[in-house]
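QA checklist item 7 of 12: single-chain prediction sanity check.
[x] sequence parsed
[x] length recorded as 133
[x] structure emitted
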Amino acid sequence: MAGAAADTATNNTATNDAAERTSNPLVVDPLASAGKVAFFLVVVVALIVLVSWLISKTRGFSVQSANPQLKTVAVLPLGMKEKIALIQVGDQQMVVGVTAQQINCLMTLEQPLSVSQGESLAFSDLLKKAIRS
């Protein structure tokens, strides 16, 4: 009788171990998790590429100011954080130098340059017109 009880205990232990292995949520198939990681890695890289493309396409568009008396007419980037800008304040136009630390008025144009909304002139052309006048 002691032998039968030992066999039954051994069978119950083996059955319980098999049940724990199949129902244990901590046991994960490594290939399944590697596939999920690879999928989400591709998704994250695709999102980074998409956002960088959108930023590069919309960089040229400026947000319209709430004040119609002040607007940027043209901008010439000189470096990573430096640029020269032609701004219009009312009827007057100014050429300003912009750096990361400050903004300086380089010159005030005596006669404003005419730039229509549909026309897109390069900053160098606008600067040549300003120097000539």
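[x] summary fact logged: The chain has a mean pLDDT of 76.
[ ] second reviewer sign-off
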